[in-house]
Write a structure and sequence with these properties.
This protein has 310 residues and is mainly α. The protein has a single domain, classed as ABC transporter involved in vitamin B12 uptake, BtuC. It is built from 15 helices and 2 strands.
C-alpha cells in the first residue's frame, strides 16, 4: 500500500511542478533523469533478475524512437499512442531476439545482442521514410493541453512511465516470475532440474524488458525535435543502462531507481557546470568504485549496515 501512496504523491508532485513557474531547464533535465529510471528498470528485469547481460539496449531504444516517429509521420498520433506503439514493437523485438539468442549464455548472449543494434541501425539508415543517415527534423504540436510548454508535458508523461516501469518491476520481483528468474541467475541447470520453465520465464523477461526500453526511447523524437541513427542507436545507452542498476543494486526493484537518480542527476549537474564530455568519465568512475567497493550496489551497502548495526 505504501508503494502506491508514494507513487501517487510522485505523480501529483510532477504535475504540480509542471504547472508552476519553475525554470524550463528543470523539466528538460528532469525528463532525462526519469528516462534513465525507465531505462535502468527495463534493463534490470533481464540483466539483474535473470543474469542475462543485454548490450543491445540501443536497439530497443531505437525501435521505440523510430516507431514513435513513424506514428507521427503517418497519422500525427498523440504522444501516448506513440509510446504504446513503441513499447509494443520493442516488446515483440525482445521476444524475437529472445527466441533466437536465449540458448546462448554468458558473453555469447551479450555479443549476440550487440549485433541486433547494428542490424537495426543499418535498416534505419537505408530508410528514406525515416530520414535515413541524415535524420529528420520534427515540429512539435503547437497546442499543449494543461501545461505551458511541450517539454513540461513530456516531463509529466515520463514521470507516469517511470512509475509504471517501477510497478512492473516490483510485481515481477515478488511474483513467481521473479522467483524463477532468480533461480535462473543462481544456477540455470539446477532450475531446469527443479522443473522451473526457464525458457518461458526468460522470454517473458525479454519481452517486458524490451517493451520498457522502447518506452524510454519513444518520446525522444519529440523531446529533441530531431532524430538520427547515430545518436539513437548509440552504445552509450547500453553502458548507462548497465551502470545504473549496478550502482543501485540489481537484486531489488529499488536498485535501478537509486542508481538512475544518482547517475542521472550527477550527469546533468556535470553537463551544466563543467562539460557534457565528462559524462562518460563520470559513468566510468562510478562503475569502478561500485564494482570494487560495493559490488551489490547501494542496496547491498544498506543491507550490510543494517546487519552490522543489530
Amino acid at each position: 500500500m505504501k508503494f502506491w501512496i508514494v507513487s501517487a504523491l510522485a505523480i501529483v508532485a510532477a504535475i504540480a511542478l509542471a504547472l508552476s513557474g519553475a525554470n524550463e531547464y528543470l523539466f528538460f533535465a528532469g525528463f532525462v533523469v526519469l528516462q534513465a529510471v525507465v531505462l535502468a528498470t527495463g534493463w534490470n528485469i533481464l540483466g539483474g533478475y535473470a543474469g542475462y547481460v543485454n548490450f543491445g539496449v540501443p536497439g530497443f531504444v531505437g525501435v521505440g524512437a523510430y516507431t514513435a516517429l513513424a506514428m507521427h509521420l503517418l497519422w500525427e498520433a498523440p504522444l501516448l499512442f506513440q509510446i504504446i506503439a513503441g513499447a509494443a514493437l520493442a516488446g515483440l523485438l525482445g521476444l524475437g531476439v529472445g527466441l533466437l539468442t536465449l540458448r546462448l549464455r554468458g558473453i555469447f548472449f551479450s555479443i549476440s545482442t550487440i549485433a541486433v543494434v547494428f542490424i537495426l541501425e543499418a535498416i534505419v539508415m537505408n530508410s528514406r521514410f525515416l530520414g535515413g543517415a541524415t535524420g529528420i527534423q520534427l515540429t512539435r504540436p503547437n497546442e499543449v493541453l494543461f501545461f505551458d510548454s511541450y517539454t513540461r508535458t513530456l516531463f509529466v508523461m515520463m514521470a507516469f512511465m517511470a512509475v509504471i516501469a517501477l510497478s512492473i518491476a516490483r510485481y515481477v520481483q515478488d511474483s513467481h516470475i521473479g522467483q524463477g528468474l532468480r533461480a535462473v541467475r543462481d544456477s540455470e541447470e539446477a532450475a531446469d532440474c527443479s522443473g522451473v520453465p526457464t525458457l518461458k520465464l526468460k522470454l517473458i523477461a525479454c519481452a517486458i524488458s524490451g517493451a520498457l526500453l522502447g518506452v524510454a526511447g519513444a518520446p525522444m523524437p519529440m523531446y529533441l525535435s530531431y532524430v538520427e541513427p547515430l545518436s539513437t542507436f548509440n552504445l552509450h545507452y547500453a553502458v548507462i543502462a548497465l551502470a545504473m542498476p549496478i550502482i543501485g543494486g540489481t537484486s531489488h526493484w529499488l536498485g535501478p531507481l537509486i542508481g538512475a537518480l544518482i547517475l542521472g542527476t550527477l550527469q546533468q549537474i556535470v553537463t551544466v557546470t563543467v562539460s557534457s564530455e565528462l559524462n562518460v568519465l563520470v559513468v566510468g568512475v562510478l562503475l569502478v568504485v561500485f564494482v570494487v567497493a560495493a559490488p551489490d550496489g547501494v542496496i547491498g551497502l544498506v543491507k550490510k549496515w543494517k546487519t552490522s548495526s543489530k
